[in-house]
């Protein structure tokens, strides 16, 4: 009897297990799907945070998507900046080379046995050779109905001064461009800023929204133009003043050489007359 009751209870337990198992499996599937959805929802902000959002007001976006005035201002400032740096580098090289030549000439030129030997010792493209050649030619070719009305010393002085002026013009070339860039670049950048703010305020007025996110971005992007204008102007002004001072120092040595050369030529002529 007891065994029959035990078998009956076991059958009931088995039937109950079979009835509950499918329902439990069905309930577990939605639970798993819900937990997976929660994990995905939590991972989405992390993925979005790991990828930086593109700044619509960056300089790159202004170049790519800005209006024609913004792009023109940026291109113009870029050309002015490249031109300024090119002139700075080239003129720095020219004045450095001229200062080195002046030091060498002062040490060796007037120790040569003759002016011809001194000229031959100078480099072909040297400014000092150009001045010396001009002075010697003017001293040796002082003839003609018109030039004979000018005394020999004045004639040589005039030609030497012209040669020195040519050298000065060469090493001063481009300084006017630097001065122009230094004085106009801030105003060009300011024009770009004013234009950008005007467009931003117009767009805000048309949209009817004046929240901080609608104002700060466009106005901040417009201020980039002023910053670029200053970035272009400051090196140009500093470079201009620096090159002017270097040119004065170098040209002082060139004029000293020209004066000594004039004295040597006049001394040779006085000796020849005796």
UniProtKB/TrEMBL annotation:
Signal peptide per UniProt: 1-25
Domain MotA/TolQ/ExbB proton channel as annotated: residue spans: 152-254
Compartments, as annotated in UniProt: Cell inner membrane; Membrane
Membrane protein topology class: Multi-pass membrane protein
One Pfam family this sequence matches: MotA_ExbB
Assigned keywords, A-Z: Cell inner membrane, Cell membrane, Membrane, Protein transport, Signal, Transmembrane, Transmembrane helix, Transport
Transmembrane segments: 72-93, 175-198, 218-243
The organism's place on the tree of life at top rank: Bacteria
InterPro entries (UniProt xref): ExbB/TolQ_transport, MotA_ExbB_proton_chnl
Primary location class: membrane
Chain's role: Involved in the TonB-dependent energy-dependent transport of various receptor-bound substrates. Protects ExbD from proteolytic degradation and functionally stabilizes TonB.
Quaternary organization: The accessory proteins ExbB and ExbD seem to form a complex with TonB.
Protein family membership: Belongs to the exbB/tolQ family.
Name recorded for this polypeptide: Biopolymer transport protein ExbB
Record organism: Pelomonas aquatica
């Amino acid at each position: 009897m007891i065994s029959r009751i035990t078998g009956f209870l076991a059958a009931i337990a088995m039937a109950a297990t079979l009835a509950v198992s499918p329902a439990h499996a069905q309930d577990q599937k939605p639970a798993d799907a819900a937990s997976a959805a929660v994990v995905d929802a939590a991972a989405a902000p992390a993925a979005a945070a790991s990828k930086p959002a593109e700044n619509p007001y960056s300089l790159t976006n202004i170049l790519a998507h800005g209006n024609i005035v913004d792009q023109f201002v940026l291109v113009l400032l870029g050309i002015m900046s490249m031109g300024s740096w090119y002139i700075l580098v080239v003129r720095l090289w020219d004045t450095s080379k001229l200062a080195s030549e002046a030091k060498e000439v002062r040490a060796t030129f007037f120790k040569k046995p003759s002016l011809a030997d001194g000229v031959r010792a100078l480099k072909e493209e040297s400014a000092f050779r150009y001045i010396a050649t001009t002075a010697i030619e003017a001293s040796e070719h002082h003839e003609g109905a018109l030039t004979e009305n000018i005394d020999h010393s004045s004639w040589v002085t005039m030609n030497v001064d012209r040669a020195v002026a040519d050298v000065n013009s060469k090493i001063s070339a481009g300084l006017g461009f630097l001065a122009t860039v230094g004085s106009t670049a801030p105003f060009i950048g300011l024009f770009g800023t004013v234009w950008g703010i005007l467009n931003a305020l117009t767009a805000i007025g048309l949209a009817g929204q004046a929240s901080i996110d609608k104002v700060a971005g466009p106005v901040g992007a417009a201020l980039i133009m002023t910053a670029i204008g200053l970035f272009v102007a400051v090196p140009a002004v500093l470079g201009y003043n620096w090159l002017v001072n270097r040119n004065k120092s170098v040209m002082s040595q060139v004029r000293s050489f020209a004066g000594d050369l004039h004295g040597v030529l006049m001394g040779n002529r006085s000796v020849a007359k005796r």
